[in-house]
Design goal:
It is a single chain. The strands form three sheets. A five-stranded mixed beta sheet has the order 2-3-1-4-5. It has four domains: about 90 residues; about 80 residues, Dna Ligase, domain 1 (2-Layer Sandwich), CATH 3.30.1490; about 120 residues, D-amino Acid Aminotransferase, Chain A, domain 1, CATH 3.30.470; about 60 residues. The longest helix has 22 residues. The chain contains 18 helices and 13 strands. It is an alpha+beta fold.
Length: about 450
């Protein structure tokens, strides 16, 4: 944990907590070091420092943190960190805060977003199949509990949802425990082996595009996603023969998936979350199918080309909140405001995009999007050029190499994977240089 060290009031400290993510924390820290952030804001000069969140004993009474903002990835796994972060929530800006992790519930989020008017596939919540642990417990009287459990008709539910469908655990991620079922016999078999977790059965969408949008504050990053790829580290590649497709979405589709994710994140007070959406072949609608992911995949091995943009977004959002002192209400939600729009839209028969645009305006207010963009333009005007320098540096090359060696354990795979990851991130640098209008000579001048 962090002790309340003395610091200059114009020095802002960002804490880094990502115990299971080497590349992200090393890159966030490395980019901050490279930027040497001395930020001018409202006539004051601010210095940004970072430090790693450590696990240590601490005095619970009067607990303090010297961090102005904290990248909080993984505290929900560790009860010791969990309680500390819960206590310091009013003192610092947590990305994500501890209450956010409590909101990770697929069935709840499906129902609430459906009420707002998003296109959610037909979904049923189904009780767990295995009660053996409950039955074996000496503390439980089964004669009292089980009369309260109503029998249900799994076949009728399957017919209501329709086939094909996906049987999924109510909580969890990484596609663990997800089963596609094409008929009732497959549904019955999948349910019988599902274990002791509550489930949901969701209609499968015949889709033309699978989009995964990652949000950091108001910054949205839609990415193509290949769910059929054999390995998880290949799923953000366009296909077996193409790494990246810059034009896989139309401008309208890009706008819609971004707004959907921003609205969901603001509704649940998530700074960092991902939303998986399917664009239907049949009706062209965009269906969010998995969006309670407040610990989204942020590994360079998975994200490859998209990874630098995630790191940049993290650093900008943490810097903004640390310097401006922006806060969010602890245990606060803006649900009444969303429901007021929902009720008006239902009473007046608004079109879908009219509702979504109004929700998105609320989300922008929640994230202070206008103020954040002005801050980036005024106080971080050379951020992108300096960030490009970092991602072209030997330090980042070393992070790539170390990540490949940590992930791929079969020795003969490593050389090929080294070439792949170094190559694809060099391609990102080329694309970013072109976006910034930098030729080789102008980049050299920018570095002098």
């Amino acid at each position: 944990m962090l002790e309340n060290d003395e610091k200059d009031e114009n020095t802002k400290i960002i804490g880094i907590m990502d115990p299971n993510g080497f590349a992200l924390r090393a890159s966030v820290e490395g980019l901050m070091d490279h930027l040497k952030l001395n930020v001018k804001h409202k006539g004051q000069n601010y210095k940004i420092e970072h430090r790693r969140i450590m696990s240590r004993a601490y005095n619970v009474l009067g607990v303090k943190t010297s961090c102005n903002a904290i990248l909080n990835r993984g505290a929900h796994w560790n009860p010791h960190h969990n309680s500390f972060f819960t206590m310091v929530m009013p003192q610092t800006y947590l990305l994500n805060d501890m209450v956010s992790f409590k909101a990770i519930d697929k069935n709840t989020s499906y129902g609430q977003m459906y009420d707002l008017g998003l296109h959610i596939p037909r979904t049923w919540a189904i009780p767990q199949e295995d009660y053996s642990e409950l039955l074996d417990s000496p503390k439980i009287d089964a004669d009292l509990i089980f009369p309260e459990h109503e029998l249900f008709d799994l076949k009728a539910i399957g017919d209501e949802v329709g086939y094909p469908a996906f049987l999924k655990p109510q909580s969890g991620g990484g596609w663990v425990g997800v089963e596609k079922v094409d008929d009732y016999p497959e549904l019955y078999k999948a349910y019988k082996k599902s274990g002791d977790k509550p489930l949901n059965l969701q209609q499968a969408i015949n889709y033309k595009e699978f989009v995964r949008t990652v949000g950091v504050g108001p910054q949205m990053m839609p990415m193509h996603y290949n769910a059929s790829a054999k390995h998880s580290h290949d799923r953000y590649l366009r296909n077996e023969n193409q790494a990246i497709d810059h034009h896989f979405l139309s401008a309208q589709e890009h706008d819609e998936v971004s707004k959907i994710t921003k609205v969901i994140n603001a509704f649940y007070n998530w700074d960092h979350n991902s939303c998986e959406s399917l664009i239907s072949k049949d009706d062209g609608k965009i269906y969010p199918i998995d969006f309670a992911n407040a610990y989204p995949d942020s590994n360079i091995i998975s994200l490859h080309f998209f990874f630098p943009e995630l790191v940049k977004s993290m650093v900008k959002w943490l810097t903004y909140n640390a310097i401006t002192g922006r806060t969010k209400t602890v245990f606060g939600r803006d649900w009444d405001d969303y429901h007021a729009i929902m009720n008006q839209a239902n009473n007046e028969n608004w079109k879908y995009m009219d509702k979504l645009n109004e929700y998105a305006a609320l989300a922008d207010k929640h994230f202070s999007t206008f103020q954040f963009e002005n801050f980036c333009n005024d106080s971080l005007s050379d951020f992108d050029i300096k960030a490009l320098e970092f991602f072209e540096s030997e330090q980042f090359e070393d992070i790539i190499s170390e990540s490949v060696k940590r992930y791929f354990k079969v020795p003969h795979e490593v050389p090929e994977k080294m070439m792949h990851y170094h190559g694809i991130l060099k391609f990102w640098s080329k694309c970013e240089s072109e976006r910034l209008g930098l030729s080789s000579s102008s980049k050299t001048e920018a570095q002098v």
